[in-house]
Structures are given as structure tokens and as C-alpha cells.
Amino acid sequence: MSELLKRLKEYADSDFLPMHMPGHKRRTGSIGNPFFIDITEIEGFDNLHHAEGLLLEAQKRAAALYRSEETHYLVGGSTAGILAAVAGCTTFGGKILMARNCHKSAYHAAMLRGLETVYIYPSDPPEYPHIYSRWGINGQILPEDVEKFLNETEGVQAVLITSPTYDGVVSDVRAIADVVHRHGLPLIVDEAHGAHFPFSEYFPEDSVSCGADVVIHSLHKTLPALTQSALIHINGPLVDRKRIRRYLTVYQTSSPSYVLMAGMDECVEWVETHREVFDQYARGLEHVRNMLGGMKALHLMDGPHMDRSKILVSVKDAGISGNELHRLLRENYSIELEMACSSYVCALTSVADQEEELFRLGRAFLGLDESLSRRSDRWDGSQEAEISDGVLPARRVCTLLEAEEHEKEWCLLTEAAGRVSADFVTLYPPGIPILAPGELAEQSMLRRIGTYIREGLEVNGVSRGGILVWKEDKPYG
């Protein structure tokens, strides 16, 4: 038995509670032995890239479930959908207005198309000032900001936002779609973390219903589907559907897994026939959130525009980092979370979680909160501004593709201020670039990168204390 398989089996056989992806939580699913149903494109089983029979009907069932005009399977996760959507809605060398807190796959899409990226930053809504910034997380993309950018920027071909964010913050997609459509442009929404939205009123309205033109869902994040299983929905007259379909064949394998596709069809059928489970799930979530509302050292992060399936807990007053909290949950309670960063942790729940498991998570947080509240070194809140994990303002010098083609060299973080980044530097998860190619390395960015490294978090794009920058004799500017 290989070491990887051995470790996977050991984890599966342990009593660890998986508060992380995938959404089936190693429980819900009925495909059985994957080797037994693993085939290629043989007679009677259709071809994903030229679907005319079995797979076409399966995709139509998914479209009906999400009330979409057209839906396609993605066997390369939401990444493949984002790549195809951006390519299908822009011309090479064109311009895209995109949220700066998009996943790195959106940046890869822009880079591959040589696009000029105009960034719009998330913020707190005027009616709820400081609602997200007080927690140090990314807020909403505001419709008025989208309007402002489109009025002031010529040549934009498409708008791309992420809603919900990795943290569960939901933008007003309906209002944004109205703005974008008034300008005659398509709206692409990375709704990878919102595949469960349409199935209970407890969750926010989904982007297909809100009028977005292209919506990407990761089934595997919050629903019972295998990793890499995702959907792309295409609606309305503003997108060239043939172009998107063509790029789906470019960015996806020519040998799509029938195991994954069977899993997606099973997931769709399961959701269709288990709607009552979503109501039970919502009740369990609300119970746990009420349990956590009275914590003293830790704080449940909440807001009126958030997906309540994400359990976010802030450590800003606890005297420990998010990574330390994650370690305590793992070592003392056998709970594995989805993500930890400087100022908070994220437990990803799904409809496959049973009520007792949600309560187990809640009791663990309460137990740790009780012990942390007795510590004498708790923070008094004065350090809150120092532990923000939201995206930082960036100055772009060139396009992503131009930065990729430039000659590069390694530079120590301590000497990188003012240099032009030649690669992505990303905390993973969530996969949002702290620093993207073609951006100036600012001291604030470098400090945050250094903080993440010292806390033992996974930061991609850093090696031996250095990052890739343009090869130049002196700092830019």
C-alpha cells in the first residue's frame, strides 16, 4: 500500500470530524468502488465535449435543478469554469473589471488571455460600516463601485466577482447584474462556495436567480459530490455560448472521469429527493450559531450578508493566532478545520453534517473559549488593526502576462519593497493573491507575508525567505 493511500485510510478510519471540503464529508454518496465504474468514451456512454445523449440529459437535469438555461459539467473544478468563462467573454489583450479578492484561477485566466485587469476592491456597505473590516475579512463588492468603474473605464468587456467569498460574504448580485447589464456587459460570478444556496431559504439567493450571465458552482465544496466536481451555468443573450463551450474543451481534459460525472448526477438526484434534509441542516446550524453567540475570548463572526453555513470564529481578543486555535481543535478535540489564518478560523459545514456533529463542533469551541477567557494575556482589542486578513491595496505596473514574460530573479522579502512581483504570493487556502505578478511589493504586503510564515501558515510563492521579482538594477520608481 502506498504511503498516500495508507494515510488517507488512517484518516478515514479515525474519529476526526472533517469540518472541511469536500461536502460529502466521507459519508453521503453511493457510487461504490470507483475502479468498477471507471471507463472511457465507449459506445452508449456519450462524450462530455460533444454530449448528445446520456451526458446531455444529465446536464439538463442539473440545469433544471438550478433553474439555468444551460449547464455544463466541470471535471476540473471551478477553476476550469472560470478559465473558460473569462476566455469566452473577452478578446485576447482585452480588459476585464474583476474583484481583487478573486481566486487565483481568475488571475490565471486573465494572464492566459493577456488581459488588462481593472481591480475593484471589497468594502463594507454604507448601511453597515465596519461590519466586515472589524473582523479583518473581505467585504462586499458594492453595486455603486461597479457603476463608478464602468462609467470611468473604457473598453471593459466583462465583469467578474466572487460571491460568496471564501468567508461567506455575499454581494448584492442582483443589483450588480442590473448595473453591468445597463452597460451591455456580461457578469461572471464565481459562486463556487454557494452551490447549496437554492435549496433552503436559510441561505442567500443564488446568482443564477439574481440574473448573472455566467455562474460557476463547486458541487464538491458544500454538497455531496467528489472533489473536482463543479458546474458552469450560462444564461441570457450577452454571452457567446459557443465560445465558452469551445474553451471548456480547451481547459478540461479530453478524457473526463466518468466516476466524477456519475457522482455529479448522483448529487443532483440526491438534492432533488432530499430537500427536507436542508431544513434539518439549517436548524442544526442555527442552534450551533446560537450556542457560540455568547463566547467571551473567541467571537462568532456574523453579519446580515453572510452564508451562515460557514462557521467563522475570530481570535482577535483571545491572545492566540488562528493557527494556534486550529491546532488546539485538532489535538484536543480531533476536529480538522477548513482554514486558519492570523485572525480567525473557518469551519466548513455541509448538508452531510449530522446534528450531533455540528453540536460537537460547537462544544469544542465553547470549551476552548472557557479556557482562553481565563488567560491573563488576552488582547484588549488594540491590536485588531494589525491582524486584518482582507486584501491589501495594490499598485499594478503591467499586465499579468507581461509580468510573466519578464526576466525574473529571487529577492529576499526584507529587500523586496519597491520591486515588481513576477509571481503570485498566496495564502492557501483561500487562494487569493496577496501579491500578483506585475504589482509593486509594498511594505504592508511584505509584512503580512512575513507574519503568515512566522505563524506556520502555507504561503505559496515564497522560497527560502524570498519571492520572484523583475530582474532590475534598482527598485521600480
Summarize the structure in short.
Helices cover 34% and strands 16% of the residues. The protein is α/β, with parallel strands linked by helices and 477 residues long. It has three domains: 237 residues, Type I PLP-dependent aspartate aminotransferase-like (Major domain) (Aspartate Aminotransferase, domain 2); 98 residues, Aspartate Aminotransferase, domain 1 (Alpha-Beta Complex); 79 residues, Orn/Lys/Arg decarboxylase, C-terminal domain (Ornithine Decarboxylase, Chain A, domain 4, Alpha-Beta Complex), CATH 3.90.100.10.
Structural notes for this entry:
The structure is a single chain. It contains 14 helices and 18 strands. Mean pLDDT is 93; it is low at 380-386. The chain folds into three domains: 37-273, 3-Layer(aba) Sandwich (Aspartate Aminotransferase, domain 2); 276-373, Aspartate Aminotransferase, domain 1, CATH 3.90.1150; 392-470, Alpha-Beta Complex (Ornithine Decarboxylase, Chain A, domain 4), CATH 3.90.100. It has helices at 3-13, 54-65, 77-89, 104-112, 143-152, 173-182, 219-222, 241-251, 258-273, 275-292, 322-333, 355-373, 400-405, 443-454; strands at 17-19, 70-74, 95-99, 116-120, 156-162, 187-190, 214-218, 230-234, 299-300, 310-314, 335-337, 339-340, 344-348, 408-412, 425-427, 432-435, 459-460, 466-470. The chain has 477 residues and is an alpha/beta fold. A seven-stranded mixed sheet has the order 2-8-7-6-5-3-4, sandwiched between helices. A four-stranded antiparallel sheet has the order 9-10-13-12. Helix 2 packs parallel to helix 9, helix 3 packs across helix 8 (241-251) and helix 5 (143-152) packs parallel to helix 6.
